[in-house]
Structure formats: C-alpha cells, structure tokens
Amino acid sequence: MQVRRRFWDSVLEGPVAQEVLEGNDAKAEVLLAQALVEHENAPRAALYLIGAGPGHPDLLTVRAVQLLAQADVVLYDHLIPPDTLARYARKEALKLPVGKRAADHSRTQNEITDLIEQHLRANKIVARLKGGDPGIYAHAAEELKIAQQLDVPCQIVPGITAALGCAAMAGIPLTERNVASGVRFLTLYDATLHDENFWKSIALGTSDTLVLYMSTNRRAWLFEKLLSLGLRADLPVLLVEQGTTPLHTEYEATLGSFDTLYNGHIFITPALLIIGDVVRWRSRNGWKEPAAARRDWFQKEAHHARQ
Amino acid sequence: MQVRRRFWDSVLEGPVAQEVLEGNDAKAEVLLAQALVEHENAPRAALYLIGAGPGHPDLLTVRAVQLLAQADVVLYDHLIPPDTLARYARKEALKLPVGKRAADHSRTQNEITDLIEQHLRANKIVARLKGGDPGIYAHAAEELKIAQQLDVPCQIVPGITAALGCAAMAGIPLTERNVASGVRFLTLYDATLHDENFWKSIALGTSDTLVLYMSTNRRAWLFEKLLSLGLRADLPVLLVEQGTTPLHTEYEATLGSFDTLYNGHIFITPALLIIGDVVRWRSRNGWKEPAAARRDWFQKEAHHARQ
User: Fold this and answer.
1) Which residues are CB-contacts of B67 (< 8 A; sequence separation ≥ 6)?
2) Separation between Cα atoms, residue A156 and residue B165, nearest integer Å
3) pLDDT digit string (tens) for B49-61?
4) Beta carbons of B284 and A186 less than 8 Å apart
5) Phi, psi for B127 (deg, rounded to 5)
C-alpha cells in the first residue's frame, strides 16, 4: 500500500505533473516511464508468519485478517479451514497448501522454506499461515531465517494457540487461583527429547496444568508414566479432538480411567490433552449457549467437515 | 439477533398479520401488544468472557469483534485501550471500566461479579472484556460461576495472551526444536504459592522457556533464586514492558547481568519476563519491518500513551 501510494504521489504531485503543467509532454512521458520501472522494482517483499488460530475462522486476529488482505502469496498449513482463505485472502493471491504432516517432516519443511525464498526473491508479500500460534511448535525460527538471509522485513503475527482455544471452548480456565498456579505446554512428539530430569520436573510441579500438543498417540505410555511418578489417579484429563472446528469433541476422564474408558478409540488429529484439576471446571462451567447461537457460529463451516 | 428476528417473523407472518388480513384490526392490536410483552421478556441474557489480547486493538479475534458488536453492557479491564471500545463496542452499549489493580484484588473482584449479576438479571448481553486471554490469570471461574448460578448462557472467547503477543513482537518463538521443548507460564504474584518442590521442578525442566506474568517487581529475588538452583548465568532474559502497545519496550540481558544492567530501573506495568535460550532468536530474527509500516500499525494508538 505504502509503495503504491508513494508511486502515485510522485506521479501526480511530483516532477511528472510539473512537466505536464509546463507543457513539456515528451519530457513528462520519459519521467513517467522511469517512475514505472522504479515502482515495479521497488522493494515490496515481506514475510509474515501469521497464526490462524486453532481451527475456527473467527479465531483469527484482526491483524491477521489485515495482512492476509495484502499478501501476494499465501502458503498455508493443511489444518487451515478453506473458509479462512475464502474469506480473508485476496482473490488474486497465489494460495499454496504446504500441508505438513507428522510423517515426513524434514523434507517438506525444506520445501516450505524453498517456496518462501522463491517468492520473497520475486519481490512478493508472503503470508505464511500456520495453525495456532507461530511461536508454539511451529518451526518459526527456520522460516524467519530465510527472510533474514535475504534481508527482507519479517514479522510474527500471534495467533490463538490450541491450548487457549480448546480450553475456552471447553469452558475451563488454564490457571485458577488455589487450583493451578501455572500452565505448561509440552509435546511428546519426540519422546527422546525428555530425560528423567524432565519427568521429575513434571512430578514436582503438580499444581501446573499440563497441556500436551501432538501427543495423543502416546497417551497410554504418558498416563502410565505420570501415575508411576506419583500423580493422582483421579487427576482429571480432557482430550479435545479437532478443537474449535465444527467437529470439536471433548473426552473427559482421569489419569487412572482414561484408557479403560476410551479403550481402542482412535482419535482424529489434531487432538490436545489437558491434564489438571482445572478440567473439573468443565462440568461446572462448560460451554453454555443457546443451541441456535452455537449453530450460527458453526453453520458456515459445516461443509468443511473432516477435510 | 435471533430473538429480534423471531419477534418480527411472528408479527409479520404470524397471527397478527393474519388478523389484519382478515380485517380484525382490534384483535390484531391485542395480539401485537401481547407479542411485544413476550418479546421484552424473552431471555436475552448471556455472559461472554472475551479476551482482548495483550494491548494492541488489532490483536482481538474476529469472534471477539462480532460479540462486542452485540453486547448491551461491556465491563472492561483498565488495560483495554480506549480505541478497542471505540472501534468495536456498540455506541448504545453501556461501557463500564472495572479497573482491577494489583493492590485491592478481592474487593473489586466482588464488585465485578456483582455488576455482572446485576446486568444479567436485567436480561442484558454482558461482554466481560479482559486483557490477554480469559483463561490465563484472569479469574474466569469466579465470573462464569455467576452465569451458572443464574442459569444464563456463558462462554469463554479466547484471546492472545501476553506471552504469545510479546514473544511475537520481539520476533522470538516460545518453543524451538533443540532449544526449548516446551513453555511454562508462571507468576510470582503470590510467592507463597510456590514451595521448594515447585522450584526444584523449575530447576529440572531447564529446557522449557519460562514466561512470568505479573512478576517483574520480584525479579531480583527470582534471578537470585534461579541462579542458586543452578540455572546458567548466561541464560537470556527478556523483559517486555507494555507489550504490543505503542510503548512496547524490550530489555534484554541474562540471568546474571539483568539486575546490574537495569539497576534501579522502574518498569511500567504490564511487564512480562521471558527466560530461556529462545530469547537469542530476538537478535537473530527480531521484528523487522519498514519503519513506515510499523508506524502505520501504531499511529492510531499513539494518543493513548500511558493510559
């Protein structure tokens, strides 16, 4: 926007207009041609790592909406609902899915960074639209590095991370006085990251709410580990499947009962685990809204089911 | 909206219209009067705990904007920028500051819950607009309880919590592979909450990024405690003052150097502490945007300085 404004200012109020006013049409044309070339080569490239929130398109920030409306290229994760792009990205923008699934991480992360580089070199405003928040389990650093290497402006635009979105929709606070003095975001995605000190740390900090990202497939192992560390068998556990999407589903149990209760159940990803006494607030204060209003919020998304 | 629509549907397509069509004007008038009374008494009351984000008005979610546009009453924290209300709340809405400062917690929390109760009983849609996210250090449970006791629909609308907003603006991810496998939100607001097990837990989980809310006035004590627990003196520390507002300021040092470097400095609240190796990404990948664009983002807020 800035660049375009400067161009027109320079044409309509600058030397081009001056030459026209003075009757030097030929000179004005030469100056206009020069200005056009300069305009096309003006540095426009920028990289925005934008958090798209946990699933529902209404959980984007106003800032994210503003920047999507400026982007020339939108590189989006496979968890971004199509509605988000349809509503907020420019029609003319190039929209490329860069679906990154758990199985083939390193290869596609390289492909993503290559794509970012390619479009930044072509002087484009690139929006990298990521599920949740770009600073939580989202490889932000790897992608920012490209912009830095190319000396292109870049920025992280925060988003609602799954922990906040899922807890809100379940009607539970993540911290609560006298119940949970803090909250901890973890992942078992690579269990080898965590040594015995890590587990002792978990066992000693039991007043913290634990939120586990990308870890539901290791839940049986996790619950056993936590019980063996002395965490209470009656500690509440909430698994939120496809949180804040039209298929948002909550499964509540305790550390001791979860596996028996949901024995053999296959949970759809993304799924989040919330462990701690705050989960009890769900039954006391869970989502409570007239069915009509809730349906309203979801209705436009319903056809994107199980994308 | 639903309620109003139903009212007009019933008037224009229901028994009232029927009686008018059939020439029974007197009967139509009686039915209309009845419909009006029913409409005025229709249950409309609802409570939305809405996260307003860390400071910048553009960091509200679209969902928050939608609900503010419906609210009859907006009860807002003292950290909500006036611009947020001017832009998003209805002109006719009753807007009440419920400024809660650290000094007199319990008294004003009771006053806030009383206000919520009073307006819900008066059949109003109440938006409780809170800085950050309503589930992180925000007394959500106490406020939701009122709606539950009155059997009124209620909902938490997540917001960008300060940790996500400040980190994004500083250009750092809160988790990063091989650097920080998780992140922990804490507060020293009431130091007695945390026993020695808690501190051992911090010492053992050193690969986690630590984010401390409402704790900057105890920073000297904290840094000493962390050093005594064996955390590295060269562990980076970032203090973000008035994060994401026009007065957003970052102070970077290490556990060992912070107090010497900023000796005697008085930090303006709200201020957030981020401790961990991810802070190094700030200097590598910090906010980087043309000055003009950055000024654009801030310019409308500049006159709200140091509210």
Assistant:
1) B48, B50, B127, B157
2) 9
3) 999 999 999 999 9
4) no
5) -100, 120
Strands (E), chain A: 46-51, 73-76, 94-97, 125-130, 154-157, 182-187, 208-213, 236-241, 249-254, 271-275
Interface of A with B in 186-205 (CB under 8 A): 186-187, 193-194, 197-198, 200-205
The count of C-alpha atoms lying within 13 angstroms of the C-alpha of B302, restricted to the half-sphere facing its C-beta, is: 7
Band (A292; pLDDT cuts 50, 70, 90) = low
Angle of CA points A235, A238, A239, to nearest 5°: 140
Residue B298 in 3-state DSSP? helix
Q: Which residue has the higher pLDDT, A207 or A130?
A: A130
* B135/A58 touch (CB, cutoff 8 Å), yes or no: no
- Interface predicted TM-score of the whole assembly (ipTM), two decimals: 0.85
Quote the DSSP letter at residue A177.
Answer: T
Q: Reduce the DSSP state of residue B75 to 3 states and report it.
A: strand
Q: From the candidates B113, B133, B200, B277, which should be mutated to test the interface with A, based on the most A CB atoms within 10 A?
A: B133
pLDDT at site A35 = 76
The pLDDT assigned to A90 comes to: 96
Alpha helices in B177-242 (DSSP H): 196-204, 219-228
CA distances in angstroms from A234 to A176, A257, A262, B53, B80, listed in the order given: 18, 8, 16, 34, 39
Q: How far, in Å, CA of A287 to CA of A290, rounded?
A: 10
Task: Report the distance separating Cα A177 and Cα A183, nearest Å.
Answer: 12
When comparing pLDDT for B99 and A86, which is higher? Answer: A86
Do B215 and B241 touch, CB atoms closer than 8 A? no
**Whole-angstrom distance, CA of residue A185 vs CA of residue A209:** 9
Kindly report the backbone phi and psi dihedral angles of residue B135, in degrees, each rounded to the nearest multiple of 5, phi listed first: -100, -5
Question: Residue A12: what pLDDT?
Answer: 77
Helical pair A2-13 and A25-41, crossing angle rounded to 10 deg = 170
**What is the predicted pLDDT for the residue at B101?**
57
- Contact state of B61 with A181 under an 8 Å Cβ cutoff: no
Look-up: residue for tokens 């119940």? A179
Instruction: Give residue B202's identity as a one-letter amino acid code.
Output: I
Residues 218-257 of B with CB under 8 A from A: none
- CB-based contacts of B145: which residues, under 8 Å, 6+ apart? A284, A285, B113
CA distance A276 to chain B (A): 14
Instruction: Give the span between the Cα atoms of A74 and A96, in whole angstroms.
Output: 6
* B155 to chain A, closest Cα gap in Å: 5
What distance in Å separates residue B20's CA from the closest CA in chain A?
Answer: 30
Mean pLDDT of chain A: 86
Hey, what amino acid is at A11?
V
What tokens were used for A201?
Answer: 């740390």
pLDDT tens across B226-242, in order?
A: 999 999 999 999 999 99
**A-B contacts at Cβ under 8 angstroms:** 246
Model-level pTM?
A: 0.86
Nearest CA in chain B to A293: B2
Partners of B95 in the β-ladder: B74
What pLDDT, in 10s, does the model give residues A217-256? Answer: 999 999 999 999 999 999 999 999 999 998 899 999 999 9
Nearest residue of B to residue A278 by CA position?
B141
